[in-house]
DNA sequence: GTCTATAAACAGATAGAC
DNA sequence: GTCTATCTGTTTATAGAC
């Protein structure tokens, strides 16, 4: 049972994604270079690999995806892929990093001087659009968090927490001003995330049960309207 | 690249969980036997393995978990585990099967002769209790559906769909009777699932952002109250 | 930067003794 | 039923030529 393998440097935010399975590492790569040139080619290739990796990781998870599959999907050789990313985990982390930024974006829009109804309705629409346009991103994020967010923990605890606390303050302002019902800001944020991401993460189930997908414009609008209605007005009839 | 391996019989509802990676199979096992005896021991061992497998699969996924880990967690030898389950996938399917029954249970309670408010509020409470008491079950279900439900597809399309359609009918009755706002039954069900399962699937994020978990009775009640309020009355103040 | 081997070792599964 | 030993293909990663 004893391990004779050398340990990865596992920089910064890395934590084991599975009980105990260290894998060897290598020198840092990423040649990256000057302003403009044919180094554009490099960036493009990196992007192609990252895109292919997102598609596969989000469907099969880190361990369910092989480097061979990513290389094939990105149309590069496996060896070549390792020229751009030191190892599998580094690639996975790079994908997650890109993800978090775009995943957070809709939330940044929230501001206290907005009308609460407009702000919430708009947020629901943009998050549902995200579920429609970038379902793999939503799914990979979900996969990562389900597994305890081993690689995103720090960012969630810092960047995300700061942002959410700020927006919770905005919501609290609205509640205190009587412009929203007395709901806890955090729970409201969770509800917004949950109902909107559901259509990406559980797209399979949604399609199996309704026979439709967000790609269908009618279904998208119907979904937006229903989610807005439920979260804003509630399921009970108004008095 | 050519595959010289024999193919698994992959009984019934099996579909590849990953692009193309068939693995050899074996004779069907599961000795299982008469009414009572020391065959109780067998059932216990099976249960221990299933329990350990649920814990690991839900955290690391099918491919992120090794049979060695399951065996160790269940305190049986790897070879012995293979006596009870033909192969890794069979074990995974067995875990999922057990899961679906218990996951569906709360929904069965729904009946048209109930008061809509009572029914929905009660459903929210029982689903949140499930998220508190069996988070691994919720997470494994989520993992499976995210990945396209390769092993649950049939059951979702049949058993689940039938049940949901029936309950959608109940909700529609309430809507038509003016006892619920005019919301689409399917979207309401999705919203109920999403907001309640979120506290299990995204428990890591919830804890990172609020510092609390459903295991805390105060937080549990606070969550129940907020989710009920949002889904039933909505976030906007009543006129 | 990209490719052709090839190392290194794991993880799933099995044979066969007890 | 349970164990020891072992086989097999897969998969990550690297060395070294071009």
Give a description of the structure.
Two copies of one chain form a homodimer. In chain A, helix 1 (39-64) packs across helix 6 (135-146), helix 4 packs across helix 6 and helix 5 (116-133) crosses helix 6 (135-146). The radius of gyration of chain A is 21 Å and the shape is globular. The first copy, chain A, has two domains: 38-85, Orthogonal Bundle (Arc Repressor Mutant, subunit A); 96-234, Tetracycline Repressor, domain 2. The first copy, chain A, has helices at 39-64, 67-74, 78-84, 88-108, 116-133, 135-146, 153-176, 185-201, 203-210, 217-233. Chain A contains ten helices and no strands. In chain A, 66% of the residues lie in helices and 0% in strands. Chain A has 239 residues and is mostly helical. Chains A and B meet through helix 1, helix 5, helix 6, helix 7 and helix 8 of A and helix 1, helix 5, helix 6, helix 7 and helix 8 of B. Chain B binds a DNA duplex (18 and 18 nucleotides) through residues 4-5, 21, 23-26, 31, 42, 66-68, 76-80, 82-83, 87-88.
Topology:
2 copies of one chain form a homodimer.
Chain A: H1 39-64, H2 67-74, H3 78-84, H4 88-108, H5 116-133, H6 135-146, H7 153-176, H8 185-201, H9 203-210, H10 217-233
Helix pairs in contact in A: 1-2, 1-4, 1-6, 4-6, 5-6, 5-8, 5-10, 6-8
The structure holds a DNA duplex (18 and 18 nucleotides).
Pfam families (chains A, B): TetR_C_3, TetR_N
Keywords (chains A, B): DNA-binding, Repressor, Transcription, Transcription regulation
Region (Disordered) (chains A, B): 1-34
